[in-house]
Amino acid sequence: MANKMRYLRGPVAEAYIAKSGTVAIEEGDMLKLNTSGQITPASVSGDSTGLIAVARGASPATDASGAKVPVNIIMFGSVFEFICGTTTAALAFGQALKITGKQTLSKKTATNIAVTGTNAVAIVAEGMAASGSTVKVMFRQTRWAAQINRRSTGTWGA
């Protein structure tokens, strides 16, 4: 499912951000921000802390470092459709998901993602049957918005 527009509905903020190095970015890749303020594909669960956007355009590896890539900044309430790396069990609304590939999310076991949801980047936006190959998701807040809504108790919300 490479180079596929993953945005479905909801609030969106479009931007153009410079990419890091001569890496290939495909439309639909989850993107993280590095310490230089450039984007690169997020592909493992540990990339969750830098996750900020989903590519809405492609940039081949032959593009120079610093080439601008069109992205959708992740905003809570926006719904995207990604490849589901967990196809052996049904996924219910609200189930936590983690990054397992540039365009793949898999089930993250967590009792309370507000407290023990390390690396949980999204929740299931629409339930999915066990045989599903894609899942509709809403991302959790990104690194910029996280501190705005965090209470001193470590819980999330208003």
Summary?
This protein has 158 residues and is mostly beta strands. The chain is built from two helices and eleven strands.
Protein described:
With 158 residues, the protein is mainly β. It has 2 domains: 7-73, Beta Barrel (Virus Head Decoration Protein, Chain: A); 79-148. It is built from 2 helices and 11 strands; from the N terminus they run E-E-E-E-E-E-E-E-E-H-E-E-H. It has helices spanning 113-116, 146-149, and strands at 7-9, 13-18, 30-33, 39-41, 51-55, 68-73, 79-84, 96-101, 104-107, 122-124, 134-139. The protein is globular and about 40 Å long.
Instruction: Indicate how many domains the architecture comprises.
Output: 2
Q: How many beta-strand runs?
A: 11
Low-confidence stretches: 146-153
Largest sheet: number of strands, sense, barrel closure: 5 strands, mixed, barrel
Q: Structural class of the helix and strand makeup?
A: mainly beta
Fraction of residues in H or I helices: under 10%
How large a portion of the residues is in β-strands, by DSSP E?
A: 25-35%
H/E topology pattern: EEEEEEEEEHEEH
| Gyration radius, in Å | 15 Å
In one word, what is the shape? globular
Tell me the strand order in the biggest sheet. Answer: 7-9-8-10-11
* Overall pLDDT: 80
Q: What count of helical segments does DSSP give?
A: 2
Distance between the termini: 36 Å
